[in-house]
Design goal:
Strand content: 35-45%
Structural class: mainly beta
CATH architecture: Roll
Number of helices: 1
Number of domains: 1
Radius of gyration: 14 Å
Strand order of the largest sheet: 1-2-4-5-6-3
Helix content: 10-25%
CATH superfamily: Hotdog Thioesterase
Length: about 130
């Protein structure tokens, strides 16, 4: 059995990680949705002016995990299926959101997406989280 603990050093949200993204999250009233705002910097790019796809995957994975954790469920990512639709430009604000889709046994499915300020869909993902503990 996997036991998870938080030492506040998560790359995505840990306040103690000097190299991390330091994301903070908001939640819907029903607790089944979460979102954050992320403005990738030059240090996050792959090609010039375009955010590295791995960085976008990290943020999508984290917002999916936050939905599940906010519901009181400790989990780890079992699968993350990411679709890159448009380039995520650096130095441009994105809203990254996720919503619970379903729970079945020890698996929790979450849909996540990243959008530009004008609403353009940039990246989407389906995450399957595995309940631990």
């Amino acid at each position: 059995m996997v036991k998870v603990t938080d030492d506040n050093n998560c790359f995505a949200c840990g306040e103690m990680n000097p190299h991390g993204l330091h994301l903070s999250f908001e939640y819907s009233d029903d607790g089944e949705a979460a979102w954050t705002y992320f403005e990738p910097q030059k240090s996050h790019e792959g090609w010039s002016g375009i955010t590295h796809g791995g960085i976008m995957a990290v943020v999508l994975d984290e917002v999916a995990a936050k939905v599940v954790h906010h519901l009181g469920i400790n989990s780890v990512t079992a699968r993350l299926d990411v679709r890159y639709i448009q380039p995520a430009r650096t130095c441009e604000l994105h809203k990254i959101s996720a919503r619970l889709v379903r729970q079945r046994g020890r698996l929790v499915e979450v849909k996540a997406e990243a959008r530009r300020e004008d609403g353009t869909l940039v990246t989407s993902a389906t995450a399957v989280m595995f309940k631990v503990e």
